Amino acid sequence: MTKRMLIMIGGLVVLVLILAGGFALHIKALIASAPKPFPQTVTSTKVASTDWQPALAAVGSVVAVRGVDVTTEIAGLVREIHFKSGQDVKKGDILVELNADSDKAQLQSLDAAADLAASVLKRDKAQFDAQAIAQAQVDADAADLKGKRALAAQQQANIDKKTIRAPFSGRLGITTVNPGQYLNPGDKIVTLQTIDPIYVDFNLPQKQIGALQVGQVVNVTSDGFAGISFPGKLTAISPKVDTTTRNIVVEATFANPKRQLLPGMFANASVESGDKKHYLTLPQTAITYNPYGSTVFVVLTADEAAAAARAAASGASAAAPAKAASGSGLVVQQVFVTTGETRGDQVAILKGLKEGQQVVTSGQVKLKNGTSVVIDNSVVPADSPSPTPQEH
């Protein structure tokens, strides 16, 4: 190989080294100028221990203790109406009077016939005492008097039926009956409901029969009164299970002094069963449910993450800890949890967390172990054991 060729090869090697160095510097500059990952914004809450009352939940219907559509037993023309729609009435109060003029005239005729029969009986008894007539005549007179008095009593009953009274105390509904209107037997005049106290009937599965007992506390809520819970007592358990649904009907009684619960409303019922328990709770939005288990993201400071990393390195922890990103204040670590019962927006945590730990409640989809986060709780997920509709 000649000297000239060696010089050419050396120059080529130098050129390659210069190009490689320049390219490496260019890549380093690009890496240095790449934008740093921004911390992800999430909401969070602290794991808290709360009292948890086991309860059986169901949807039921409000039913009046007594309820009836007041009707007329006989036909007639309405003469007077003695109530106003929505009025509270007592048992026996007059509601409607039908025209009974002809009935009263006929009653007077029957009373007169009965009086005459009584006079005839009195005279025949005197004649019988004087042995002027037979005992059979006196007996016939007595039977005739009883018959005429029975006809008069029947006519009086017909007149009484034309005065329609409240069969029990309660609140009247809205009527469309007017004076002068002709009513046929069975025509509805007005509804009458006893609504204080009031019942709520609901169904529960047969597997929960063992947890039911008369006297248990029952709480109901209705969307008509958001945020209000009505306490009552379980008062009746049906002795029969429905063979179609395998459910049992349960009835609870509630005081209703403000007449807020009305017959026909639906209500969410909750029957307290068993003693109170203490659970760690989280909003249900904090849980990520996966086929391999449920997880949450725990928020750690950089120092806590570093301590967890050192503990893992020394074998003190089997879990893979999150490594704090350079310059970050908070990072997240994904951990497995065991969940229990749910109530409203809350879920009970049986294993995996300790009280006081900070857990992400929304924004998990953009997180992984070691992601830097910023907490913004200006808007947080609902965390109520008894949620109510948000629409107004």
Overview of the molecule:
The protein has 392 residues and is of the alpha+beta class. Helices cover 25% and strands 38% of the residues. The protein is built from 4 helices and 21 strands. It has helices at residues 3-33, 101-129, 135-161, 302-313; strands at 40-46, 48-52, 55-71, 76-81, 88-89, 94-98, 163-165, 170-172, 182-183, 188-205, 217-221, 230-241, 247-254, 266-272, 277-283, 288-290, 293-301, 330-343, 346-351, 358-362, 373-375. The longest helix has 31 residues, at 3-33. It starts with a helix and ends in a 17-residue tail after the last strand. Mean pLDDT is 85; it is low at 316-327.
Largest sheet: 6 strands, antiparallel
What's the order of the H and E elements? Answer: HEEEEEEHHEEEEEEEEEEEHEEEE
CATH class of the largest domain equals Mainly Beta
Q: What assembly state would you assign to the polypeptide chains in this entry?
A: single chain
The portion of residues assigned to helices is: 25-40%
Q: If strands are numbered along the chain, what order do they take across the biggest sheet?
A: 2-15-19-18-17-16
Secondary structure: number of strands: 21
Low-confidence stretches are 316-327
End-to-end CA span:
94 Å
Q: What does the average pLDDT come to?
A: 85
At the third CATH level, what is the topology name of the largest domain?
Elongation Factor Tu (Ef-tu), domain 3
CATH architect. name of the largest domain:
Beta Barrel
Strand content: 35-45%
Q: Total helix count?
A: 4
Shape: rod-shaped
Radius of gyration: 44 Å
Structural class: alpha+beta
Total tally of structural domains: 3
* CATH homologous superfamily placement of the largest domain: Efflux pump adaptor protein, beta barrel domain
